[in-house]
AP-1 complex subunit gamma (Ceratotherium simum simum), 825 residues
Amino acid sequence: MPAPIRLRELIRTIRTARTQAEEREMIQKECAAIRSSFREEDNTYRCRNVAKLLYMHMLGYPAHFGQLECLKLIASQKFTDKRIGYLGAMLLLDERQDVHLLMTNCIKNDLNHSTQYVQGLALCTLGCMGSSEMCRDLAGEVEKLLKTSNSYLRKKAALCAVHVIRKVPELMEMFLPATKNLLNEKNHGVLHTSVVLLTEMCERSPDMLAHFRKNEKLVPQLVRILKNLIMSGYSPEHDVSGISDPFLQVRILRLLRILGRNDDDSSEAMNDILAQVATNTETSKNVGNAILYETVLTIMDIKSESGLRVLAINILGRFLLNNDKNIRYVALTSLLKTVQTDHNAVQRHRSTIVDCLKDLDVSIKRRAMELSFALVNGNNIRGMMKELLYFLDSCEPEFKADCASGIFLAAEKYAPSKRWHIDTIMRVLTTAGSYVRDDAVPNLIQLITNSVEMHAYTVQRLYKAILGDYSQQPLVQVAAWCIGEYGDLLVSGQCEEEEPIQVTEDEVLDILESVLISNMSTSVTRGYALTAIMKLSTRFTCTVNRIKKVVSIYGSSIDVELQQRAVEYNALFKKYDHMRSALLERMPVMEKVTTNGPTEIVQTNGETEPAPLETKPPPSGPQPTSQANDLLDLLGGNDITPVIPTAPTSKPASAGGELLDLLGDINLTAAPAAAPAPASVPPISQPPFLLDGLSSQPLFNDIATGIPSIIAYSKNGLKIEFTFERSNTNPSVTVITIQASNSTELDMTDFVFQAAVPKTFQLQLLSPSSSIVPAFNTGTITQVIKVLNPQKQQLRMRIKLTYNHKGSAMQDLAEVNNFPPQSWQ
């Protein structure tokens, strides 16, 4: 058989291939020749064939069929064969294959070989791919070589010991005696590998860490070695860019970091040397920067002195001025980790950090943005927000969402005034409105609602912000909501913070109608605009007919959400006009409640309280009536809990259509969010459309059908009269309309009517038409009560009345038991 080609010839031939297919053909042809040679047990060229096979393996072609040939080379007595055999074993074998166990005995023999280079090959192979079984079997030989006087073998044995400890941590104590004299070695290779071994032992075992701190006095030895490296003169063997053995310095600094962490004595012993390294290391080369960076990490991780920590942060500040992007990125990342513990020291480099926002590298920009937000406090909020708003205006789209959220949080926490807070958030919405997160709109609405003195200023600013530009949808949504709430302030020109603008009611409606028909408006934005127009029907006086016309037009919209709102608003104009002003009154001041988890509002007979959401699945069938709340207990005894009547909630206007859902038949199993139905209520059969606006059948029987009215209360000039209606769609529902009148000479203010019924009933209070009962019977307050009586039992009710009259607070309880039979049978 002819002699196989040499490795150099194979490489030259493969490199001449013009295509991947041609290269693959060459490789397959050579692999076939190598297989034939292996089958013939050709010992002469086995080394050459395995070398070629390793080259093919490096190119990504399969070479597993050469594994056993590697073992044969390892067993050879020739050094050249052993060298290729061990190299092949490291590349082609690993501990997942049982074949590697066959070489354990060969490695053991070579570890005891008389030639140091053969011993070195065995140590390298064991340290590279030795399994836990091999490490257990050969740890004793490694430990012997670790104590030898040959520095060539000691450095390789130290690295092999690291691999053994990683595979079998319980063998760590075996190497402890051998580590005592390792740091006294003058050879830098042995020192380097010894520090790696000690680092591994300290990281893996707290007991070893304590032993090296107390018994071995490791810190003084490391300090001595590091000091010698800094003070030593030029050594061509170890010099890298003018610095003596930077690799060893970095390893020592990492080990010092582990030893000094949470230990006062060790930290004290290394403070001086760390200060020397930080001040004497040359920074003109990247090598010096690497050592300084490790020094900074060590200083920040141990219990170092405050002056030393300031020195470390100043080094990072100098890194920010470096032309190398990697060094700037590393500095920003390190400062971000230390800003919480050394805030004032980092603040000194604020201007440099802000300048990094203008960097062209996106990674540096992101780190600079995160660090800038971490530096914001009450003293620098105005300047930092100015820079961050400028960054928001010019940054890439992927930064805008995070930057906007950061500005919102910082402004909420450190805002110097409410006007500044509102202006800042409006600037964000104007600049990056389309990128803000979903919670930005309700949060700004809440802020505006709570800033009572800023209502006129805010609505005027928002009105001017959306004139002719509807591209920023969150801004348009907030503007629509504010115009709907405070449109009367906009028209009256009551703004004191800046020069008021002259706006007519028709101009305001023109803007909102433009939002409704704009192609840029989303369905949610249109909902805001329609609800705002509806609210203006109680705030404007000259354009109510125009508002009715706009609302009626959208009753046939193809957008179902918009259509439902419009139909319900039409019903409010026609059937419930007496309640329109109460339903559309201004939002009360909202309280921001922070909870540990999501909550829902559970309302029973008008009482509202947050309750944690349960993760249990809803029951498949109707809940028994016995589980309903015992509502009479709410008003029983002396401990009387006031019942909160249903009022417009603090939910943004996007849910405005749900406000009127209560005006139709009661749906006690799936009440809308604006006024949820009482908990644990059995389901009621009813049409799916709550207002029943598309049905020609009237919702309730006429009052003249024979249900007489009753006087429920008459005392101290206050008279409460009940009138009754029965639902056509659900006979179990009785609708009671109360009318409160006042025959005294003074108004009764802050009037609140509350009611409770036995637990076999369910009761729901709607909003009253007013809170003032006019004197001399010149007007009345009306309020609607819905009572569900599925068992057709005699109706009983306890009522509670609270109001202010003649400067004093009045409160009274009464029982109502004289309901006519027609109202409940």
User: Anything to note?
Assistant: The chain has 32 helices and twelve strands. The first helix runs from residue 7 to 15.
